[in-house]
Amino acid sequence: VIRIGIPGALKEVPHAKDKLFDAIKAATETGRKEMLLDIEKDVPWGVETDILDAAKGNKIHNIINNQRSNK
After folding, report:
1. What does the DSSP 8-state code read for residue 69?
2. Could you give the maximum distance between any two Cα atoms of the chain, in Å?
3. 41 close to 69: Cβ distance less than 8 angstroms
4. Nearest to residue 63, comparing CAs of 28, 30, 34?
5. Which of 25, 32, 50, 56 is deepest in the core (most CB within 10 A)?
6. How far is 48 from 66, CA to CA, in rounded Å?
7. Residue 13 to residues 10, 26, 43, 67, Cα–Cα distance (Å)
8. Rounded CA separation 71/63 (Å)
């Protein structure tokens, strides 16, 4: 499950490139150009890459990657 938004107002988004791009675009309409990517270790690399590509396509300048451990 991919959740995009601000704390307290996260929306679930299916893993589809166009849906990710649109969801990130909607979340950045306030002018924010930073993103925290909090991802679990067992998420496939392709999913993470799609999220990062959608963020870069929306001109997100700063992506903080917080990869969780399996502990």
Report:
1. P
2. 36
3. yes
4. 34
5. 50
6. 12
7. 9, 12, 15, 19
8. 24
Scanning 1-71, the segments in alpha helix (DSSP H) are 17-27, 45-57
pLDDT in tens, the chain (71 residues): 677 766 666 677 877 888 888 888 888 888 878 888 888 888 888 888 888 999 999 998 888 877 666 65
Q: What is the 3-state secondary structure (H, E, C) of 12-30?
A: EECCCHHHHHHHHHHHCCC
Dihedral angle sign, alpha carbons of residues 29, 30, 33, 37 = negative
- Residue 68's Cβ-count burial label (10 Å; 0-12, 13-18, 19+) is exposed
For the chain, give the number of residues.
71
The Cβ of residue 14 has, within 10 Å, a number of other Cβ atoms equal to 10
